[in-house]
Write a structure and sequence with these properties.
It is built from 8 helices and no strands. It is mainly α and 204 residues long.
Length: 204
């Protein structure tokens, strides 16, 4: 593997890890999980399998769909993302933050901070263009065929996940709605900033 390619994978893995930290912080706020997790919650309760198993199955379905839409979006980085997002979530859990820090007003700050960190991690993982997460693989595949913007497609996919999850009795909250409304556009904003201020210098 060339030095430049290795650097791209390191940046992708770092982005995936940061995504996991953001998810962990959103979960700590306890104001509702992301739309995909609402669907996972609904399905795993109906199918009587573990949450982790159901999450893996949905990720694999996304992986297949991403391959069908555009197999160039699915690389070794896609598999690495599955690992390092989980590592990021678990790393946040190791902080063992006190429940005393989880109070009404602070919960919304944890949630908004978590969403920002999560979206920054997604944008960073997109920067090297060495592959995408299974979720982004689907979105960029749909983008290729529809021509719609990233945030428009993500909003539609997240809305589908959220509605399906609620119908299956998955637990949603204000956090689920905020992630639905904010995530796509925040990823675009962070990605534009990274491309402008960081991207050109990374590959020198």
């Amino acid at each position: 593997m060339s030095k430049e390619k290795l650097k791209k994978y390191v940046i992708f893995v770092l982005g995936s890890f940061i995504m996991g930290i953001g998810i962990g912080l959103c979960n700590y706020a306890d104001l509702g999980v992301d739309p995909m997790s609402v669907l996972v919650l609904g399905l795993y309760q109906r199918l009587h399998v573990s949450f982790g198993t159901m999450n893996l199955l949905i990720s694999l379905v996304q992986l297949v769909i991403a391959c069908l839409l555009d197999k160039k979006n699915v690389t070794m980085a896609t598999l690495l993302a599955m690992i390092f997002v989980s590592v990021g979530i678990d790393t946040f859990g190791l902080l063992h933050l006190s429940d005393n820090l989880s109070v009404f007003l602070l919960d919304y700050l944890w949630l908004l901070g978590g969403i920002c960190i999560y979206c920054f991690g997604i944008a960073l993982s997109q920067l090297p263009h060495c592959g995408y997460t299974s979720y982004d693989g689907v979105i960029f595949g749909l983008k290729r065929y529809t021509g719609f913007s990233y945030h428009t497609i993500r909003w539609g996919v997240d809305l589908l996940f959220l509605i399906s999850g609620i119908l299956l009795k998955g637990t949603a909250g204000i956090g689920s709605l905020l992630i639905l409304l904010l995530a796509g556009r925040l990823v675009e904003i962070f990605h534009e900033w990274l491309e402008k201020n960081v991207g050109g210098n990374l590959w020198l």
